Structures are given as structure tokens and as C-alpha cells.
């Protein structure tokens, strides 16, 4: 799984996995989603995504949803399917339960 890494937490980028589930090519997703095929390739193969526009994220979700339906899989793809967040425990340990910095 591709991910952004914090000291322990991470945001996992799951485009590659979602495409593999239905054997979807870069070219097919690009055509369905209305995104350039080079953009799809870069996003699919990225270890780190520094930023992604809401427009591109929306097009990916819509395009993947259409592709899943074409494969007879009734699934709506959301940003939460593409991005999975795991908290950075080192960061969280710096905060007390009220969200205030711990004395240290």
C-alpha cells in the first residue's frame, strides 16, 4: 500500500489497489474520469502525493464508481476509499485528552 509517512502515522493512498480490484488500466480510468492518462499514471505510482486538487479527487471517485459499475460491482468510491488515515502516535502523545499540550 502506498503511503505518506509521519513518524508512525500515515495516510495510505489506495488508487493502485482500487484499480487492481477490477483490473482497470490507466488509459481506461483516464478516459472514464476525464483525467489525462499521465496524471492517472503518476497518481497510481506515487509513493507520496504532496497535494491533490478537489477536482481531480472528485473525477477519480466518479470515474472509479463508473468503472466498478461497468464490472457489475455496485460500489460508490469516495475519498475515504482512496485515502486511509492512521494517526501518528508520537504526535498524539504530545497532547492531553483536552487537546492541550502536555507539560514536558
Automatic annotation (TrEMBL):
One Pfam short name: HTH_26
HTH cro/C1-type domain boundaries: 14-69
Signal peptide (residue range): none
Highest taxon above the source species: Bacteria
Molecular function in Gene Ontology: DNA binding
UniProt-recorded name of the protein: XRE family transcriptional regulator
